[in-house]
Write a structure and sequence with these properties.
The complex is a heterodimer of chains A (263) and B (284).
Chain A lengths: L6 H6 L2 H10 L4 E2 H8 L3 H13 L3 E4 L2 E4 L1 H22 L1 H6 L7 H4 L8 E4 L11 H9 L2 E6 L6 H10 L3 E7 H10 L1 H9 L3 E6 L7 E5 L3 E4 L11 E4 L2 H15 L2 E4 L3
Parallel strand pairs in A: 5-6, 6-7
Antiparallel strand pairs in A: 1-3, 2-3, 4-10, 5-8, 7-11, 8-9, 9-10
Helix pairs in contact in A: 9-11
Chain B lengths: L4 H6 L2 H12 L2 E2 H8 L3 H13 L3 E4 L2 E4 L1 H22 L2 H4 L7 H4 L9 E3 L11 H7 L4 E6 L7 H9 L3 E7 H19 L4 E6 L7 E5 L2 E5 L11 E4 L2 H16 L2 E3 L2 H13 L12
Parallel strand pairs in B: 5-6, 6-7
Antiparallel strand pairs in B: 1-3, 2-3, 4-10, 5-8, 7-11, 8-9, 9-10
Helix pairs in contact in B: 2-4, 2-5, 9-10, 10-12
Classes of the chains: A alpha+beta (263), B alpha+beta (284).
């Protein structure tokens, strides 16, 4: 049933070849453009180009190199694989511990789009607050969206403060959390809803994630482990593709929620 | 220190095969031994490597993928399918794939188990034994053809009379030629309860496509637009579903000949050798 697949060695086990294939995915390039794009000198990259030509993954057209038909069928499959592996490799133990099925399936399939992530933990003295590293980018954001199924005591004052500074704030809260918030912090919620740049949604469905913040500067995820345990942490990415991913995560839950305009 | 996943999955063919096997369903050691044709001493270290990397766990006496293992499996499978397809046969890179829309080209790995069928030269101009068996007693049959093959018409009619659903798409010039020579037959066929007839414009970059409950066959033009009497055939469900989707793609862009009236129109426009605007469609 198994085929040996020589091509795997060709495409994966040389970083130069791998990066060259990914570079040419965006279109034909001259040798000068390749050298510049990959920051390499001529002779080592020529050796790799020759190997890829011989394996039929590249073709030469004039003074440009481009992916062959074969290359065009293969390279689009490499990218999601490599980005997924990279996300897992960078924080292997974290992803191994979490229940990944708490993410919507279509976004789990694109987890590679999170790119380079870093796990941030709050300071011991401020265990219920966000880690200090995200407070600064949070206040510099133009829009802040939050999806949450947990209650942090800092929420009401923080989001009210962000909104008062003119930042567009949208919150999606799981129903019990939303009810608790309204019960315990009625005045703050009313003040929040009176502002023009705020939106509050209540989600009648289970939000399986602990929470997620999505802004125009970063995305952070806080997940629940396979054993159902939670500790205060934020897995943060500042990459562009991650922001798109986060926006879709927000939209996914928004579609399951009802907006509240008054209480 | 964790090893990089790329090494875990691709540095060893045994581990790669194991990951792909467990991606289908959880398996016991006994099943792994048989399906991968390996001894426990050869495979145990590889299983350990996969469990140490949090891709596989042992549960209730069998091995299964973790959530992370499942993601890694999906990405690896999609690449391995394409690599397998390309290493098994050069057919795909030697033929013109431009008649296949991008979303299906993206899943061309579903065709990895296709086998090349080259008809016996003495049989080239008649339905081959394989094709006949392909048609016989199918519950449904979908045919796209840019060839004039009148010898198949009685087969289609017979199938439709046997309560099988028969859907046919011909290019304009093929249908025109059938009308000229077999007008009565095609009229009968088009008006049968279980048969549907469609026409699409000439110049489509797909030679033939047939799907039935026996499997699928596809034939493409080569890169220079030439055609040889060979085709790729497969009966695996992934390939059959892929072929059905390709057929639906062409059907959605074709024009149905659903009544006697349509046939009359078709004949009269064909005689004027020009198609009214509404009958033209563009593939892309």
């Amino acid at each position: 049933m198994s085929t040996e697949l020589q091509l795997i060695d060709t495409i994966f086990f040389s970083d130069k070849r791998k990066n060259l294939l990914l570079l040419l995915k965006d279109g034909p390039k001259t040798i000068e453009e390749i050298k510049k794009g990959l920051k390499v000198s001529s002779s080592p990259i020529m050796a790799q180009i020759r190997i890829l030509l011989k394996e039929g993954l590249l073709v030469q057209k004039g003074d440009r190199y481009c992916l062959s038909v074969k290359g065009k069928l293969i390279v689009p499959k490499m990218e999601p694989l490599l980005s997924t592996f990279q996300v897992f490799d960078e924080n292997h133990d974290y992803w191994a511990r979490q229940n990944l099925r708490t993410l919507p399936p279509h976004l789990l399939d694109r987890i590679g789009e999170l790119g380079s992530c870093k796990e941030l933990l709050p300071e011991r003295t401020h265990i219920f607050d966000y880690p200090p590293e995200i407070m600064d980018p949070l206040y510099r954001s133009r829009t802040v969206m939050e999806i949450s199924s947990i209650f942090l005591p800092g929420y009401p004052s923080l989001y009210l403060d962000l909104a008062k500074r003119g930042i567009e704030v949208s919150l999606i809260l799981e129903k019990p959390i939303c009810e608790k918030l309204i019960f315990d912090y009625r005045a703050e919620v009313e003040e929040f809803l009176d502002l023009k740049n705020t939106r509050l949604f209540v989600c009648d469905h289970k939000i399986e994630l602990a929470s997620s913040i999505v802004t125009d500067r970063f995305i952070s995820l806080s997940m629940i482990s396979k054993e159902g345990r939670y500790y205060n942490h934020e897995m943060v990415s500042f990459e562009k593709s991650a922001l798109v991913w986060g926006q879709e995560l927000f939209n996914y839950y928004k579609d399951l929620s009802e907006q509240i305009t008054q209480i | 220190m964790q090893h990089e996943l790329i090494d875990v999955v691709f540095r060893s063919q045994k581990r790669r095969d194991l990951l792909l096997l467990l991606g289908e369903e959880p398996r016991t050691m006994e099943e792994i031994k048989i399906l991968l044709d390996v001894s426990p001493t050869a495979i145990l270290p590889q299983i350990k490597r996969l469990t140490d990397s949090d891709l596989v766990i042992q549960k209730n006496g069998s091995y299964e993928l973790t959530d992370m293992g499942d993601q890694v499996f999906k990405k690896a499978q999609s690449l391995v399918n394409v690599l397998t397809l390309l290493e098994r046969d050069n057919y795909w890179i030697e033929h013109d794939l431009s008649g296949i829309p991008n979303y299906l080209l993206d899943r061309v790995g579903d065709l990895k188990d296709c086998k090349l069928v080259e008809p016996d030269p003495s049989q080239i101009f008649e339905p081959s034994a394989e094709l006949l068996s392909f048609f016989s007693s199918s519950r449904y049959l979908m045919v796209f053809s840019s060839f004039y093959r009148p010898e198949f018409l009685p087969l289609y009619t017979r199938l439709a009379r046997l309560d099988s659903d028969v859907t046919l798409i011909f290019t304009e010039s093929v249908l025109e030629k059938i009308m000229q020579n077999y007008e009565k037959k095609i009229r009968k066929l088009a008006t049968l309860q279980n048969a549907e007839l469609f026409v699409c414009n000439d110049g489509v970059k797909l030679a033939e496509l047939m799907v039935s409950d026996r499997g699928m066959i596809i034939s493409l033009f080569d890169s220079n637009g030439r055609f040889y009497y060979e085709y790729m055939s497969c009966s695996e469900p992934e390939a059959v579903n892929w072929a059905k989707e390709l057929f639906e793609f062409y059907k959605s862009r074709a024009w149905q000949i659903e009544s006697e009236q349509c046939i009359d129109n078709f004949i009269s426009t064909a005689e004027r050798e020009a198609f009214p605007e509404s009958m033209l469609f563009s593939l892309h």
